[in-house]
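Researcher: Let's continue the batch. This sequence belongs to AhpD family alkylhydroperoxidase, and it's 201 residues. Same format as the previous ones, please.
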Amino acid sequence: MFIICFGDAMRVTEKPISSYPWYLRPFFWNQKRKYGQVLKPALIWARVPGLFAAIAILYGVLDRKNSPIDPVLRSLITVRVSQINGCRFCIDINSAVLAKRTGSMNKVEALERWQESELFDNKERVVLEYAEAVTYNDRQVDDDLSQRLHEYFNEDEIVELTGLIAFQNLSSKFNSALDLPAQGFCRLPRSSDHTRKADER
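Model: Same format as before. Here are the structure tokens for AhpD family alkylhydroperoxidase:
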């Protein structure tokens, strides 16, 4: 069973588009063209224009078309880290991207319990294990995991992979702390912890 989460009061409010610096408005226009709406996190980050610009540039580098990290792997990372950090907005938009990149909702629906699923290959499993080891406070990246990661990636790719995980932690923790809502991009599993918390509000 699935629901779509909308609304809820954010802990910091966005300003009218017209009140943001003129040089940020093309970013908003591009989001509206791409997603059909301006993204709430962009409006919040943009309260500090320099921060918004830095975040936008960093995201653009990590999600560029010629990234050595496969697009599906990138999406698996962004969704899983978002789930761990309870970011409703990130789960929503990143799940929609993952579904688009894989052509179905199967991996989206199985991702919280990827260890029990046959949908993920060995490379994806190592990446997800690494993402969890970096994200969970009570886990560490040990030599065994590092060695298994080196079976699939060179050192430059591992740096980029780690940068993506770190960025998604930054993004999802920021959005979760400020209680930024999902914007209706993807169906969300009712059974997941982040959705149960939203239902209880």
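Researcher: Any comment?
Model: Residues 1-7, 191-201 have pLDDT under 50 and may be disordered.
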